[in-house]
Amino acid sequence: MADEVVLGLIGCGGMMGAHARGYKALWDAGLRDFRVAATCDIDPARADKLAADIAEFQGHKPTPYTDFRRMLDAEPALDACDLSLVHRDHHRIAIPCLQAGKHVTIEKPLAITCRAAQAILDAAARAGRILQTAENYRRSPENRAIRWALGHGRIGATRLLYWISVHERVWYWAWREHRDLAGGGWTMDGGVHFADLFRYHIDEVESLYAASRIHNPIRYRDRERMANPIQVTVEDTTSCVLEFANGVSGAWLETNIAPGAGFGQRAVYGSEGSLAWGAGLQTRTETITMEELIKLHQAAIGPEGMEALFPRGVTDTVATELWEFIQTIKGQATLETDGTEGLKALAICMSVYESSARHEPVEVAAVERCEIETYQADLNEAAGL
Length: 385
Fold this sequence. Notes:
By secondary structure, the chain is of the alpha/beta class. The protein has 14 helices and 17 strands.
């Protein structure tokens, strides 16, 4: 196996900037067993800008491209592709990359529908290549500590999950506001992170019942004056009841059309206490801040555990997911968030939409198996799936 993993970065917009910072964090920590050889974006200025940013730390500039197929043809030394794209294009670009023999890491959600995600998984299996879902939230010191505390019974037997966010957002968020490009709104875009955390901290979601609505179809390009309106086609409100395989019940509520008083709570409740994101652990007899809980976890796992989760002290979650991808290609690690993990998280989000579309509870496993596709049918048709 080569000492150096050679990478091509496809999609040089906002989130790929976080990937570039992740690569820099690894480089600055002395974890330099990779090289970015190419960048690619339909906007040549973005591809060139990202290449220049990479050059600042790795010492030489990747070659910028505007066509990913041309990049694949011109860069035979590429081992892997790192994709950060409009959701509609995930399978359209990931599958050819896999067919070209490249390992692939792809930003969440894995695909625009479960059928598209399964097509990516099938392509990876046929090519015998590594497929990572770039899921970073679970990798934070906070989420590692929460999982450790729950696993050690610090709040007793887990019973309830509350995941609530009520606020207002009037500004327009580009392609993410359009269902044909994004697949769904925040329930999918941010929600796939949350779905992964539900599975990571609690268990598989067995079934759910949800209502998803567009109450306010207008967003504004000029947020200050609420001017220059544009119509959007993704949901702004979701209410969902979750039933986990281990008997835990959950309430998931997201809305961005609530002017005035906003509120939120993200917490797990057990028989002896609670764990709240940001706040920490509280039982009948003790209160531990999140900062203290993180220190307790890190002391418990020791230097070896710390190096496994946070190599060379790197805690940037995008950096550590990329490190895992690179090390797995080299045969020195195992993917924590592979394509299957990505599909399972996506299936929870799609189950929300399917339940709402069908006005009935749905089994998440059936959505994952592409047996329920009422909401996804036109998206699949448009994708040629």
